Structures are given as C-alpha cells and as structure tokens.
Give the backbone structure.
Amino acid sequence: MNAALVYLRWNSSRNRLLSSVKRLRNPRYLVGAVLAAWYFGWVVLRGFFLHGAMPSPSKVLISPLVVTIGAVLLSLFSLTMWIFPQERKTLAFSEAEVGFLFPAPLTRRRLIDYKLTTSAIRILFSALLFAFFTSGLSGGFLARTLALWLLFSVLSLHQLVASFARSLLRGKESGSGVKLLSILAGVLFGALVVYREQFAGRRLSLPELHHWGQRLVLLTLSGPLHWLLLPSHWLLAPLLAPDWAALSLAMLPAIALLALHYYCVIRLDAVYQKRFIDLPAGSDRDSAALRAASDQQRSRRPPFILKESGAPWIALLWKNLISSAFANVRMWAGLLGIAMILAIFCARSNGGAVQLIIGVLSGFAIVWSVFAGAQICRQDFRQDLLRADLLKTFPLRSWQVALGELLAPWCILTFLQWLSLLVAAACLARVAPPQQLVMGVLVAAIFLPLLDMLLLMIANATALLLPTWVLLSGRGFEVFGQRMLLTIGQLLALLLCLLPTTLVFALGVVLSKLFFSLQIALFAGLLATTPVLLLELFAGLNLVGKCFERLDLSTELLQVE
Amino acid sequence: MIAAQALTKKYGGFLALNALSFSLHPGEVLGLIGPNGAGKTTTLRCLAGIIPPSDGNVRICGQDLASNPIAAKRLLAFFPDEPRLFDYLTVAQHLNFIARLYQVHGYESLAGELLEELELAGKRDALPSELSRGMKQKVAIACGLLHSPRVIYFDEPLTGLDPLGMRRMKDSILKRAQQGAAIIVSSHLLHLVEEICSRVLILKSGCKVADGTIAAIREQFSQQPDANLEAVFFRATSQSAVAP
C-alpha cells in the first residue's frame, strides 16, 4: 500500500481512538466504557484465561455430522450472497476519500488495496472479539483468531465477488428480486413434490433420523456434493485444528482461497470499471466513481398508490416501505405464495420429518422475529434521525409522525409473522386438537402485532432519547457497553410494560376459571389483556411523539463533540 | 404575516437567541445576516417550528406556532443550507410524498410546472444519489414550494448552485415575494441580501443589532450615503449589541 495511504490509515485510526478517549468526559460514554471494560475483564477474559493456551476443539464440534452441517450452512450462506443483492460496503469510499484520493495520482488497484486492507484490519478486530466470545470452543485464542480472520476475510471477499458478478450479469435489467423469488418458489415446489413422491405417509423415528445424518455425511464424502462443500470444509478446517502444526497445514488451502478471492475481486472490479464507469470525457466521473463504489441504488416501485388526500401520516408509511426490500406488492404476493405452498404441503402430509422441520423452523422464526425483529426492521425514526429537522417541519402532530414512522416495520414484521404462523399451524394441523390449534393461532395472530408495536416503540423511544448512541454506533470501545445498557434498558422497559398485562391475564384466568374450563379461561384471560395492551400502545405512541418533539439533534451532536 | 415576540433560545447555560422580536409583512424579503454563531440558523429553526423556543412566541399568518403548529406549518416552507432528501425516494416520489403530507390536491400539474421551472423534468425518476448537490437543492425547493407556502425561510439559498441556478433562485425568491409571500433569507452573501432583500436584520451573539430597510441601516451605521452593505455590516457587528 502507498506510504501516504498507510499514513492516512494510521492517523485516522489513532485520531479515532483519541476521540473515543476524549468522549469519555461525557458521562453517558463513560458509563458505556466502564460497563464494556467490566464485561471484558470479568466475564470474557476470565473465561479465556481459565482455558488452556491451545485446548483441543470440543468433541461435539469435531463430530463429522456437525462439521458437515457447518459446511452445508456456510455454503448456503455463501449462496445467499448470490441470490440476494448486497451493497459493496467494503469498497464504498467516503466523500473525503473520493475528494482527496480519486484526483490523486493513484491507480484504481491501489485504492482497492487500500479499502481491502482497511477491511482486513476491521475484520481482525471482529475476529478478536469472536475469539473472546468463543473461548473454550475450539483451539487457543490466537489460533482461533487467525482461523476466524481467514474465514471472515474470505466471506467478505466472496460477498464482493458475488456482488460484482450480479452487477455484471444483471446489467441495467431491473426486477430481478421478484424473478429470483419466483425461481425459489418453483424450486421449493419441485422439492416438495419430489419429497411427497418419495416419503409421503412415512413417519421417521429417531434412529432413522440418525441414519439420515450418517447418510448425509457419507453423501458429502464423494461425488459433486463433496466438491461443492470442499471450500467450506477448507475454511472450517483451521477452526478445528488441534495443534499449531495441524493449524499451519489446515490454513494452506484457506489462504489459497483467500488469494483466489482477492484475484477475482481485482479482476471483476477492473471489468466493472471498464463496462460501467469509463465514461466519455465531460461526464461526471467523480459521482460515477462514487456510485460504482457503493453499488448504485435503484429506484423502487412504491408499495401502493399514494393519493394526495387522506390521513397525511400514511405518507410516512409509504415512504418507509419504499426504503425496505418489501416495497413491492409482488414480493409480498410471492412470499404469500411460498407460504401457501408450504402450508398446503404440511397440512396434507402425514407427520414426516420435513413437516416437523418446517414446523419447528416456522415456530423458531416467530420467536426469533419477536426478539430480534424490532432491532432488524429499522424503517422508522432510526433511519430518519438525521432528517429529524425535516420531519419536524411537516404539518403533523408529533403522535402522527410517530405513528407514520412506526408503521412500516410493524407491517413488515406482522406480515412475516402471520405467514410463519400459517405454516406452523398447517404443520400442527394433524397432531394438535383443532379447537386448541384455532385458539392458539388466533391468540398469536392478535398478540404478535401488539407485542411488535410495543417493542418498536421501546426501540424508537430509546433512539429518540439517546440519538447519538444510535447514530454513532460501531465507533469506539464504549459503544459495546452502550449496547449492553440499551439491551438491558429495553428489556426492563418491556418487562415493565408487560407487568399490567400479566396481572390482568392472571385475574382474567382466575375469574373465568370459576365459570369455564381451563382452556376457555386461558383464552379469556388472554383476550382480557388486549385492551390493556392497546391502552399501553396508545400511551406509548404519545410518549414516542413527545420524545420526537423534544429531540434536538444539533444539541445532541454538540454534546458528543 | 410573521410575528416573532421576545424569541429566546437557551442551550443549557448558552444563550443562542436573546429576546428577538420582529415582524414581516406579505411581499417583504428580510435578509438575516450576522457573523458565524450569531444565531441565524437557530432563529430560522425556531421560526420553522423545528426547535421550541425557550421563551417568546411566533405567529405565522396569525396562527401561533406553539399552540397551533399544524395550521402554522401548513403555511410555511423551510429550506436548510444542506438539502436533506430521502435516499430511497425518486424526485417524483418526493413530490408525491409532500403532496400527501400537505394535502395538495391535483399536485401533478403543479409538480410538473415546478420541475420544468427548476429544470428537473428529465430527472423525475432519479434518486438523490444520482443528482448533483445543486440538483438536490432544486428538488428540496420543488418540494417546499409545492404547497404554495405563504411564509418561506431560506438558509444560504445559493450554496451549490451554478450561476444560472443562482440567477433563477434570486428571480424565484422575488417572484414569490411579488405573489405575496413573506420571505426570510439567511446568508453570508451580502451582495445577495443587498440585491433581493427589502429589509435587513443583523444579529450578533443572539441579539438584534439592527432591523430596517438597507437605507435606514446605512443611515444608522454609516456616515456615507453610498456605503455598501458590507461596510455597514462590519461597522454594525463591530459595535456592541443594542437592546432588542
């Protein structure tokens, strides 16, 4: 890398560290740093030193079935990079970099090397962190860091390769997402038909499942599957090495993969530049370069026609839905179609393993979406924090802005959860008593959206009360502590919100039990909590609105400085 | 049309705006000038309802901004120095969005006219990332003017515009004023203020130093009748602040 670029990297990192230290004068950052230091010092480092320098990987981890499943999952993860569009964030240049480096006498290759080196350093920190958290799972700390760094680096480069390849293959064609969804639905349908032909009506026992596991391992030892999974095995091998000698040997193919990926990135970037960026003289080369670096965003079809009359806050929902990948009605219809296929298949099957797996996965998806959904779907205030001034000029009451902002992630989560619920219910159709199943589905269908809204409100209120914690996330050691505090705080807020609901539920069950059966009493208790939750949501909406009203980002950012 | 009464804004112990009072009538263009940190942007943000003042009140066409913010905000438009657009909305989608927020019936024809006027007709389906800074500013202006505001605030309106864009912007400001809008322009470009503003308000450290027509201020701070606004500005801001 060019000496000037090394200087830039070194000083940027040093100054960022100094800024982080200076920020600790602000109590809210100091608290985060203290908490992070305590966590690393007591919880992680203690666990790390308790384990030996180079312990052997745990027996569970090196069992052939686990390794094979790991390789399959890793391959599937790589496959998703080719199916779903990804931004080339690793190669995204900041405005300052474009301003200073693009006109400088540096080749594109040097700039790419600079970005990749920066990314490699960042990945090293991630690997260190992961190595801390996985102490005792496999190998020594350094060996694990090295193995994880190789794994993450290859995945990062693979993502770039896939993104470049997609852009080059796609050209200027649009709507590929819906096409891919249709293809996926077709493949899924085909797989289900084959499954029905082969295994319809068979119930698999545990020994049979074990036998299936053995067959899966055997299947991957030869034939095309073996070759398909080989790169994943190479990447996982360093993590499973019992000593340094084995690690050195295991790293060789992984390093070769890393080199191959690096070569591909350089070549594909050159081809991409030639095809899309080498513009005739007089074109806006800088902005073109910027766009190329960050994989140009495409305009998205609105989810529905927005008329100029009607509730104004719907405009915010419309805007935020466009910002998500779920802007397209055809996408929603496609997902509904896939869910329907799965549901029909599961409802007509007779308790097979696949049905069981689909049911468990659907249930897991629902539970996971309740816990993580509000943190992942961020098409709300958290996305618009920097535009808060603009939002405040709109002729809307603060609760209307809050409602409009919260609706998009809520709609997305509710839609996906109802789809999962449909599939899960279909899987249980043959085993659960119909009355209980209908009641369970009904209760879940009513409560999941209410719970989602509650969680979204808590997450948004936090973002509005502590905007800098959200805006500056990912920068500095103290951010880790802040995230811990945020998580704990949000959990406490959720528990506090659920306390009255739980009390009403208990009261409802006890009273109903005097007249009805336990089943009906439980159902009645749950229904009694609905107005309480609705009241809480109403109060919450006003609270989020008030938080938005009081937000003054200029003051917040000044305090950070 | 705009009436600010004892407008005060405190950030902790820092007084950003000290009991500022002034009024502006339809068709008037007020130039808000002052050195860095004088409180110009804070004034505009208070007047636009973005931040609540610590004390005092603002009335827009008779509507109190604090007690009746919806009615007041429907009548105004604020153009910050840095256009903040939504990254994922196209130019046309921005206008559609604003039309719903401000309930602009039959907005398509109005939007078409504005896009033509601002030379954005060919960029209807472009995302902000595909636009230059000047074009982004034009999109923000199109959005702001779509609901035909009666009160308009500009914060450094010429930043990022090419010479033709600057000329058009000045013409556009004057055109809106002729149509009866009350306009406040905050800028460091004194020649712009001199060219388009009928009144000037000079701020220093959150206090009003001068308020009146350019001729009146020239008379107040300069002995020379032909002194330019730059000379008057330096003289006004080098003296101590006067009572609000």
